[in-house]
Amino acid sequence: MESINGRPIEETDDKRPLSQEITAEKSESILVDEHGGSRATLCEMFRGIDIVYKSIQTVVFSNKLNLLMPFGPLAILVQNLTGHHGWVFALSLFGITPLAERLGYATEQLAFYTGDTVGGLLNATFGNATELIISIYALKSGMTRVVQLSLLGSILSNMLLVLGCAFLSGGIVINKKEQVFNKACASVNMGLLLMAVMGLLFPAVLHYTHTEVHFGTSELALSRFSSCVMLVAYVAYLFFQLRSHTSLYTSLNEEEGQSGNTAESPDICKWESIIWLSILTVWISVLSEYLVGAIEGASTAWKMPVAFISVILLPIVGNAAEHASAIMFAMKDKLDISLGVAIGSSTQIAMFAIPLCVLVGWIMGRPMDLNFRLFETATLFVTVIVVAFFLQEGTSNYLKGLMLILCYLIVAASFFVHVDSS
């Protein structure tokens, strides 16, 4: 009986501490998992906060021009409190300037991960995003004339002011030798710009000679047809540049590769670039609505022609990224890149942005056409001829840059005293 009764007693005595140990070990493992999981979650959270902080520090606080960013929210505040269009326009103008520059920066960062082909398409899409956003809002408001003048002003600003500043700064810094660039690339771009002048010239001539078959409709129909042709030509140009005749751009690619692989590397990752592109595009679109809405009021308040505001002031903001990039590359003796930025951007606006706005206006029911009026078309024609003459030798110096800048001052003064016929 004792042995029989003892066994269960011994077994229970042995089993009780064993079960207690198992239970204790389980409870300890649960506590460790809970504490370990919470620690891992906290670590991931702090790591994410650190990534966001570094990204904001790199994109927002790394450039002194970003000190102008608070002017954007201030413009919205002034609009809601006072409605003074002069101040709203000025504050919106200052607020969009750093955003346009940062948009170009984010595009350049994303191009590090996408390669030359997709990078070229990204530059075509986002390089002139500010002008396109402002133009679409102006079209939505029925201000087709502002669209025409602002896009024309972007071409003039890039070809005269941006390229002139690049030649001037490069010629001053690199003064021991004459800077050279690829003439073949420049001639292709100038040919496209002359084609754009042709597309703008014929509707204007048709209008002013009163030789339309159907008055009021033939001019618009010709503009829409020419816009489709110009877009086809621009797509062919992209294929020519990025696929079929890349050998023409060998010197540019080699120069970028030699300096970019060793000295340049991306500051932010691919997804950060995409997120910042989205944020900046949305914020620019918000400020563009206030900017466009205040143009006419600013013209009255400042006693300044709408043509001067649209052709001179708006493009300077939209070309902030191109302006800074062209000067920087010229000072590093990378004139091919500067030329690609200035003349390439003009080509994008003339052969892509303007025809696209005509088609978007067609979809919206807005009569946007290619008749930019006689004075404006003549200005563009003379500008293209002057720049083509300066680029024919394939060399640059500070004197050419100074002459281009002075030509831009003449254009600006001409639009200041010009009364728009519309």
What is this entry, summarized?
By secondary structure, the chain is mainly alpha-helical. Helix content is 82%, strand content 1%.
List keywords for this structure.
422 residues; mainly alpha; two-stranded antiparallel sheet; 82% helix; disordered N terminus
Question: Can you offer a commentary on this structure?
Answer:
With 422 residues, the protein is an all-alpha fold. Helix content is 82%, strand content 1%. The chain contains 15 helices and 2 strands. It has helices spanning 2-59, 71-81, 85-126, 129-140, 144-173, 183-208, 218-244, 250-263, 270-293, 295-302, 306-318, 320-331, 335-364, 374-391, 398-416; strands at residues 179-180, 395-396. A two-stranded antiparallel sheet has the order 1-2. The termini are far apart. Residues 1-16 and 251-263 have low confidence and may be disordered.
Write the layout of secondary structure elements.
Layout: H1 2-59, H2 71-81, H3 85-126, H4 129-140, H5 144-173, E1 179-180, H6 183-208, H7 218-244, H8 250-263, H9 270-293, H10 295-302, H11 306-318, H12 320-331, H13 335-364, H14 374-391, E2 395-396, H15 398-416
Antiparallel strand pairs: 1-2
The low-confidence runs, each spanning 5 or more residues with pLDDT under 50, are 1-16, 251-263
Work out the number of β strands.
2
Quickly count the helices: 15
Categorize the overall geometry.
globular
